[in-house]
Amino acid sequence: MNALARIATGFVSAVAEAMEELRIHRGRVLLSLVGVAVAVCALATVVGAGAVAEQGVRETSERGGGRAATATFNVNATTPPEPERVDAAWREVLDRYAVAYGTRLSYGEMLVQFTDGAVAVPVQAVDPAYGIIHRVRVSEGVWFGDADAERLAPALVINEAFWDRLGRPPLATHPTVELLGEGGRTAVVVGVTPRNGEWDTEPTAFMLADAYASLPVPGGTGSSMMGSLLPSFEAWIDRNQADPIVEAIRRDFAAALGDGAQVDAFRTDYAAFGDDPLLFVKLLVVGVAVVILLLGALGLVNIALVTVRTRIREIGIRRTFGATAGRVFFAVLMESVVGTFVAGVVGVGAAILLVRSPLMTMVLGGGELEDLPGFPIEAAVIGLGSAVLVGALAGILPAFAAIRVRVIDAIRF
Amino acid sequence: MRLVEAIDVGRTVQIPDADPLTILRGIDLTVEAGERVSIVGRSGSGKSTLLNLLGLIDSPTEGELRILGEDAARLRGARRDRMRGREIGFVFQQFNLLPGRTAIENVQTPLLYAGGASFWRRERIAREMLERVGLGERTAARPERLSGGEQQRVAIARALVRRPRLILADEPTGALDLETGGTVMELIEEVAAETDAALVTITHDPAIARRADRHLRLSEGRLVPLDDPVPAGSAA
Predict the structure, then answer these.
(1) Residue in B closest to A312 by C-alpha
(2) Which residues of B touch A24 (CB under 8 A)?
(3) Which residues of A touch B109 (CB under 8 A)?
(4) Structural domains for chain B
């Protein structure tokens, strides 16, 4: 038998011996490992729940500032270029840098005829990609699609307050609203965004940028319209090479607009700011879990040391049958490691059940998670790794105690 | 083949706050393969100490001891442990079965340290050994459910499962009644004969000692030949 096979057999036999010992002493083992399992569960839950909470924070941030990496471009010129020229230049630079998601963005108003009177409703004029970039959720109907650009009656995505003012008509009936002003138009509601907090009580709406640009000046509001003010532009760029691409787009966009035009560019997504908003909480809870883990390890060492003393005669008997000191050391160590590994598996399993439970997802994600992350592999690895490490550390002292006793003394013990 | 060769072996232990205590002195002993040797002596005469020396559990403080041709003084650490496990089988007076394990698990224990095919086939080997000692139907029984004689048979199966060349039995019938003791000794002798193993038995019992080919007596730490271990006029 070659050396490798001998080592493998030695390892397997030591593990088999450890498993047998765990089976024989399962009552004691279970009691001593409860602390470890709880600590591993806490540790893995913290890491796993942190990922869910982080995703919740990320999605909330992305709804405001766009996905990582989103950059906003503003055009400044003493003599504003023609909007058509600006749009063409924007589309060209997006194509050049293979940016799949870009949108125009401007804010304005439209005068809407409700049953109880005309109301000036704030409106965001965007392209369909805005919904992807900002993770716009739609509780009823749909977000804009490319086909909506072809509509004769402009499509609207309204908020809950707007929908309430309309009497919450089913969107399947294609409800319409009258937009007042010179040469007034009729718009079709295609989607409704959910209420965004308690303060979201006034009607607002999204409209496609081209449709908004074609609207007449609303009577009496005096607001500027799309055609008279240049919009902002947003692009969702690969975050790994965001900075050079943003700069390149800014440069090329300005160049395409000609002399006198300046383009400012800046990142608006959360990733541009670097700091992890949950870092402090995560560190705090991980610290608590580590303390629990250390306490569990302390209990494990205590019980293991006492147990080894009660097993000295047994260890002596094993030595008479050929167990070397190294083998006894390894077997006692393995008992601890195998035990804590099993406790780790139980702890990580419990953590997965906890983190994936609907209640936890609701609490951590605020009930608004779009992309629920899977249980992070690193949480399982950290949990199991910690358990094995604790088992090894807790097993070393008893293992030394086991081999310190001379065989002749052990069999007389 | 000479399995044991002791030349002027002595064992002295240090006693705290007292003079050193000499337990064995001037021990000369040879044991050949297949030989059966009995050693009798009073309690405290050093019988178990001698057995521990022969079993590589203890080391002499004087003289030269060779086990299977190897100088015991030079055998250290893992090499000594492995040789003990491979070549020497122990049968204890109190059986020393591992608590909580079944008969077959106890018999498998030495095979955990054997490595190779013996380790992978340990369950089958242990079962065959238990069948050999007449406990084929009790493999799943725990020690506390076995009689004294059955426990000693499990201990014998465990001692012999690796086919050792030297069997050391320390009062193997001490915890058994006369009849069971005789049966157990027959069994040890049979199994030892099958593998041509040498058997060194330490006993108080002259009747057990008489079963050996050669009889020795330990007296005041010295080993002396004994023509007949049964004292004159004894009923044994």
Answers:
(1) B98
(2) 100-101
(3) 317-318, 321
(4) 35-56+77-225 (3.40.50.300)
pLDDT digits (tens, 9 = 90+) for B187-209: 889 888 888 899 999 988 888 88
Indicate if ipTM > 0.90: no
Answer whether B113 sits within 8 Å of A314, measured CB to CB: no
Instruction: Give the residue, A126 or B226, on which the prediction is more confident.
Output: A126
C-alpha span between A51 and A56 (Å, rounded): 9
pLDDT band at A311 (very low <50, low <70, confident <90, very high): confident
Q: Do B113 and A327 touch (CB under 8 A)?
A: yes
Confidence of residue A367 (pLDDT cuts 50, 70, 90): low
pLDDT at A226 over 60: no
Q: Is residue B21 pLDDT above 70, yes or no?
A: yes
CB nearest to B110's CB, from A10, A321, A324: A321
- Best probe of the A interface among B106, B112, B129, B154, by most A CBs < 10 A, is B112
Question: Residue A3's closest chain B neighbor by CA?
Answer: B116
Contact by Cβ (8 Å): A223, A109: yes
3 state SS of B177: coil
Distance CA A390, CA A395 (A): 8
- The yes-or-no verdict on residue A73 having pLDDT over 60 is yes
Contact state of A325 with B78 under an 8 Å Cβ cutoff: yes
Dist CA A51 CA B79 (whole Å): 53
**DSSP sequence for A71-97:** EEEEEEESSPPPHHHHHHHHHHHHHHT
E strand or H helix that includes residue A113: strand A101-114
Residues B57, A313: C-beta atoms closer than 8 Å: no
Using a 10 angstrom Cβ sphere, with 0-12 exposed, 13-18 middle and 19 or more buried, the burial of residue A144 is buried
Contact B115/A6, CB-based, under 8 Å?
yes
Please tell me which residue of chain B has the smallest CA distance to A10: B115
B18: exposed, middle or buried (Cβ count in 10 Å: 0-12, 13-18, 19+): exposed
In tens, the pLDDT along A330-345 reads: 888 888 888 889 889 9
Residues B16-28, mean pLDDT to the nearest whole number: 89
Residue in chain B lying closest to A7 (CA):
B115
A209-212: long-range contacts, CB 8 A cutoff, minimum separation 24: A209/A103, A209/A104, A209/A105, A209/A106, A209/A125, A209/A126, A209/A127, A210/A149, A211/A125, A211/A149, A211/A151, A211/A154, A211/A155, A212/A106, A212/A108, A212/A110, A212/A123, A212/A125, A212/A154
Using CA atoms, how far apart are residues A368 and A17, in angstroms rounded to an integer?
A: 51
Q: Do B85 and A325 touch (CB under 8 A)?
A: no
